[in-house]
Design a protein that fits this description.
Length: about 110
């Protein structure tokens, strides 16, 4: 950049001025595009790399898991409750007919 200013200050010939102007027209846009690239490319990468709705999805998954656990627990409790009502013999075998329990005990 200093070379360009020196060329303009010398004012030796019109060729030097033309060359300086050409250099400025090349350097300025390329430097701006480089600056914009350093700013915009990370934004684009972040947009595609990190999902904005990730927290919502994770909360939904956790909620569904909790609902599933609740339903399984309630089913297990019902099964245990029903098993308590089933007559069993001394060997913990389920009797086919509840009357068999009364016959063996009597």
């Amino acid at each position: 950049m200093l070379d360009i200013i020196k060329l303009i200050n010398k004012n030796d010939s019109s060729n030097n001025i033309k060359l300086a102007i050409e250099m400025v027209t090349i350097i300025v846009p390329s430097s701006f595009s480089l600056i914009v690239a350093f700013i915009k490319i990370p934004e684009i990468i972040a947009r595609y790399l990190f999902n904005i709705k990730e927290d919502e999805y994770m909360a939904s998954i956790i909620e569904n898991l909790q609902n599933y656990d609740k339903s399984i627990y309630s089913i297990e409790q019902k099964i245990n409750e029903n098993l308590k009502n089933i007559p069993m013999n001394n060997d913990n075998e389920i009797l086919d007919y509840p009357d068999e329990a009364n016959e063996k005990s009597g």
